[in-house]
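Researcher: Predict the fold of NADH dehydrogenase.
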Amino acid sequence: MSSIPKIVILGAGYGGILTAQRLQKALNYNEADVTLVNRHEYHYFTTHLHMPAAGTDSIEHTRVSISKLIDEFKIDLVKSSVQEIRTQQKKVILEDGTLSYDYLVIALGGVPETFGIPGLDKYALTIRSINSVRLIREHIEYQFAKYKNENNAQEHINFVVGGAGFSGIEFVAELADRIPGLCKEFDVDPSLVNIYNIEAAPTALPGFAPELVEHAMNVLTKKGVTFKMGVAIKECLPGGVILATGEEIKASTIVWTGGIRGNRLIEAAGFEAMRGRVKVDEYLHAPGHENIFIIGDGSLMINPEGRPYPPTAQIAMQQGECCAHNLVASIRNQQPKKFSFSNKGTVASLGKGQGIAVVGDKTYKGWTAAQLKKVVDMRYLFIIGGIPLVLKKGRFL
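Model: C-alpha cells for NADH dehydrogenase follow.
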C-alpha cells in the first residue's frame, strides 16, 4: 500500500455522498486521497422522483450539484461511468480511464428487477433517474395529446403501474393528483381516465400495519386508482399488460416499480450476490475483502428477525456514515465499529396533504403524516447541505 492510501467511492447516491462528506470532515490533510466517481455532476433524491415523474413537482427540486456538497480540495470528483471492477488488480475501469485504489466503496445503487417477466425491460418505464423521470412525465403528457388526435383511443388514457411498494403507491398518488389538471389542459373527461395499480403480493406497502395500508388504499381509491392485488403481471406488451388471470389491460403507459436489484457490475466483479446484493459483514466489508465496502442497494444485511433490511435511503445514509468511520479507522489502525441500523421511522406520501407514517410506536395518517414526510425530506437536505440547501430545495407548502 502506498504512503498515502487511495480511497475510491463509486456512486454519489445516499450512501456514497454521506461517505464522501464524512471522510472530508474526519481525514487530516494528506492522510488519504479520496476520489468520488459518479455518472452525473449532480446528486439526486431517489425518494423524491415520483413527483416530477407524475409532473407534480420540478425536476430541479430533486437534484443538487455535487460540487456544492463536497470540498473539491479534499475530494476529487470524476464524472464517468464505471465499466468494470477488477478486485485482483485493485482497479476500476471507467469509460474514459482507469483508477487504482487501496480502499474501494461500492455505492452504485440499484437497477430495476423485472423478475424475468417478458417484455418489462423493453416496454415498461421505470422511476430510477432524472432522465427516466423526465421521459415518464413527457410520455404521459404526450398520451393525452394523442388521445384527442387518434379518435379517442382509450389505451392512451389508461395507466398501469406495476408494484404497490413505496415507489408504486407514491407515484400513483401523484399521478392521480395530476390527472385533473391534464384533463382540463387537453379537454378530456376525467371519468374516462384509468389508473391501475397491480401487485403480485396480497397487500400493498409491506412493513406498514394493516390499518394504515387500508387507509392508504381508501385514499387512493377515492382519487381514482383501481387496485388489483394478489395478481401478477404475466407479460408486458407494446400496448398493455397480460395478468396471470389472463386478463389483458390495454394501456400505452406502463410504469414498473415492482422491485430493484443491485448493480450488475457487482456480480460481474465476482462477488457472490443474490439479485445483485452482496451479504456484507457487520463492518460493511465485502466477503473476503477487508479493503472493499459495499453499501446501499448493493448490500445485503439481515435484521434481528432474520430477514433482509429493505434497501432504503435511510439505511444507505447510515451505512455511509459507518463506512466512512471504518475507512478512517483502518487507515489509522484503529478498531472499526459494527453497523447498527437505527430506524428513524417510515413515511409514505399519498399525494397532496395525505400520507401515512410510523415513528417509534406511534402511527400517523392524513395531513400530519404529510407534514412528517416534508420534515424527513428537509432533515436530509440539512444533513448534506445545511440550512442553505433546505431553503433552496425544501418543500414548505
